[in-house]
Specification:
With 707 residues, the protein is of the alpha+beta class. It has 21 helices and 20 strands. β6 and β7 form a beta hairpin. The longest helix has 26 residues. The chain starts with a helix and ends in an 11-residue tail after the last helix.
């Protein structure tokens, strides 16, 4: 006979087991008796409709914490709606703890923060109470934060654009949604994502395509799916790929899925060829393989899965669902907003067929003019071109120590002014070429035609205390050279005659980057506003807000950094150079197959940004008599009597900033305080031939052309 200790141990083991649910058929009966749909129950439990179906047909069981919440709901329904022939539950003489309420009308997740789990319905105390509709339950105890209106959720994608999958099968989405993912292999994950997850995002243009769902894998999730926790090799980790004979790659192929030419790397795209209008594609990002570059996503990879989902979700909603590095996403955003084709009716057959979408770059890649290409480009190598190249790059200039005055040397501070997303501001209303270049000899200069001009600007002599607007290093040109239209037009603006010798010009033009600029500007300004930096602040308040904005919300600060990296990376990607040690000069490289490989558009953006910078420098000198010490990209360093830009920026008697110079503010193109250093420190750097702006900015990359 068993002892008392053994019996008690067995009873304790039973008590420790997970709560038991009624049979699947009874679960469905109770839900239907309560008049609740599967979709509504899924919303309340932060799950998917397919998952609820699986629970009710016995294919799967819920896991904690949904298990406890689901059982509580079923127990409440069982007391309220007993099975036929079973007595109804008699209320206890003492008041039981109230059961949470399921809203009669689901109002959706909170727009500004993750919502708490919505719990089951309360049994009515009286028959009359059962007739009254339940009121929605507040899902957050935190005070409401004023936010911009959230876009209407697409019913096809109820759970947002992406999810972060952890090793326990929990997939964390936007707005606090947590989904159950039963997948144990990559093919199963792809199937679940497309059929059950409810993930994805609507197209950004009526002629475009919906964004593919993104699944971000934590290290634990990657290992669970059979992937190595880390990729190791001699190359950078983000350039590594799984070998073709890896078991996971074989699984993908066996399930009749395909990988893009990029293979199975940190950003893997798995797809099947579209059947009709149905697109089947899932994007994976593997955190432990350095999918999120620390420079573009500071601190994000170390966050909890829910935090990562929040950061990437805000970026996806305001910019685009990430499809690779921020540079890749910046380029993809251009195409998403300006799709290359639209449906047109074939007059011969009457059928709808793809046709050119006006204002886009079209479907086919376009060879650049020789001076617009890079030295290794086939256009240059095969033609033997020796006529020189465009050198439209951002400023990297330091002023000669010999031009410093005694008064400047006695000033105690240097102040760095950084223009907010200067290259984004330059993209606004920028007219670029849409057609192939045509070659002209001895053309008359026209500032309205985008292209490349061979011009001699060596006769133009400007103040040596300012960088030349015609060269990236600020030196005066000495020979004829190729310049983009904006650079030549600025020479005219300064009052000099220009007589081009040759030109490569484009007949079809358009403001291709306008929607790209508008979306990124809105994303940047809105994210800054969420961090407390708004347009209505005074200059003093603006500087104070910029000092603390990164500490206000590190997650949103990471989104802001990613938006800025998207601008620079997207522009740089327009002239992506060959990558990999196996490349040989004269060969093509994958980037050349894109219609968006357009070095002339990159040159136009940088030329306009550099000209804008020089115009402000020139106006500042006229208004204040101040000259910069150095310029790096979009940062300029000035000597100052105080540690704030308010000590030297030009203001009118009314207190308003003088037009034409640098102005403080959160809008792209306006300035913010970048750093403060001593004047002696800056002079010491200049004597050593170093750029103070580079040291203030910490070696900020100029325009990333890489992956």
């Amino acid at each position: 006979m068993a002892s008392e200790e053994e019996l008690f141990a067995n009873i304790d083991a039973l008590l420790a087991e997970e709560p038991q649910l009624p049979p699947p058929a009874e679960r469905a009966r109770l839900r239907e008796a309560a008049g609740i749909t599967q979709a509504r129950l899924a919303q309340a439990l932060k799950s998917t409709t397919q998952t609820v179906k699986n629970w009710e047909n016995g294919r799967s069981e819920p896991k904690p914490p949904r298990l406890e919440a689901y059982k509580r709901l079923l127990d409440g329904w069982a007391a309220k709606y007993p099975a036929h022939g079973s007595p109804a539950a008699v209320p206890a003489p003492v008041a039981a703890p109230p059961q949470p309420v399921v809203p009669q009308t689901y109002t959706g997740p909170a727009a500004t923060e993750p919502a708490e789990a919505v719990a089951p319905a309360q049994a009515p105390a009286t028959p009359a109470a059962a007739e009254r509709p339940a009121r929605p339950v507040a899902t957050s105890r935190r005070p409401a934060v004023k936010k911009a209106a959230k876009p209407v959720t697409d019913l096809r994608f109820p759970h947002g654009p992406l999810a972060v999958l952890d090793g326990d099968g929990s997939a964390y989405g936007v707005d606090g949604i947590v989904l159950d993912c039963p997948a144990t292999t990559v093919p199963e994950l792809v199937e679940w994502t497309l059929k059950e997850s409810g993930l994805g995002a609507a197209k950004l243009n009526r002629y475009g395509k919906d964004s593919d769902p993104l699944i971000v894998l934590t290290a634990a999730a990657a290992v669970k799916l059979g992937l190595p926790e880390r990729l190791e090799g001699h190359e950078q980790r983000r350039s590594l790929r799984l070998p073709q004979d890896h078991p996971v790659v074989k699984q993908v192929a066996k399930a009749k899925w395909q990988l893009t030419q990029r293979g199975f790397g940190p950003w893997a795209r798995i797809y099947r060829k579209a059947q009709g209008r149905e697109r089947q594609c899932v994007q994976l990002a593997i955190l432990s393989w350095d999918a999120l570059d620390e420079r573009s996503w500071p601190g994000v990879a170390e966050m909890e899965p829910a935090g990562i989902a929040r950061v990437l979700g805000v970026y996806a909603q305001r910019v685009i669902t990430p499809r690779g590095s921020t540079a890749v996403s910046g380029l993809e955003l251009m195409t998403a907003l300006r799709p290359p084709t639209k449906a047109v009716r074939d007059p011969g057959t009457g059928n709808w067929v793809p046709g050119y979408n006006a204002g886009s770059l079209g479907m086919e890649p376009m060879d650049p003019a020789p001076p617009e290409a890079t030295p290794e480009h086939p256009v240059v190598v095969n033609s033997g071109w020796t006529g020189g190249f465009l050198n439209e790059e951002a400023y990297q200039w330091v002023r000669s120590v010999d031009t410093l005055t005694d008064e400047e040397c006695t000033l105690p501070f240097t102040v760095g002014l950084d223009l907010n997303t200067a290259f984004l501001a330059a993209a606004s209303r920028l007219v670029v070429g849409l057609s192939a270049p045509d070659h002209f000899h001895g053309p008359k200069f026209n500032p309205k035609i985008p292209g490349s001009w061979l011009v001699d600007l060596s006769h133009i002599k400007l103040d040596p205390r300012l960088p030349s607007p015609f060269t990236p290093d600020g030196s005066r040109p000495t020979v004829p050279a190729w310049y983009q239209t904006h650079t030549v037009a600025y020479a005219q603006e300064l009052g000099y005659d220009v007589h081009p010798v040759e030109a490569y010009l484009r007949r079809e033009t358009g403001a291709y980057l306008d929607p790209w600029h508008d979306r990124l500007k809105t994303a940047y300004v809105d994210t800054l506003a969420d961090l407390g930096v708004t347009k209505d602040l005074t200059d003093t308040e603006f500087l104070a807000a910029m000092e603390r904005h990164k500490q206000a919300d590190p997650a949103l600060a990471a989104v802001l950094t990613a938006i800025k990296a998207t601008v620079k990376g997207g522009v740089g990607k327009l002239r992506e150079r060959p990558q990999g040690r196996h490349y040989r000069e004269g060969e093509t490289w994958p980037a050349l197959q894109r219609p968006t490989w357009r070095p002339d558009i990159r040159a136009a953006v940088i030329s306009k940004a550099r000209v804008n910078m020089h115009r402000k420098l020139n106006n500042m000198a006229k208004m204040t008599g101040l000259y910069p010490l150095a310029v790096l990209s979009d940062c300029v360093v000035y000597p100052s009597p105080g540690e704030s830009p308010l000590d030297f920026l030009p203001y009118a008697a009314s207190g308003k900033p003088q037009p034409g110079g640098f102005r403080l503010g959160p809008t792209p193109g306006l300035a913010k305080l970048e750093g403060v250093q001593s004047m002696l420190w800056a002079v010491d750097l200049m004597e050593k031939g170093l750029n103070p702006a580079r040291h203030i900015k910490g070696g900020d990359a100029v325009l990333d052309e890489g992956e």
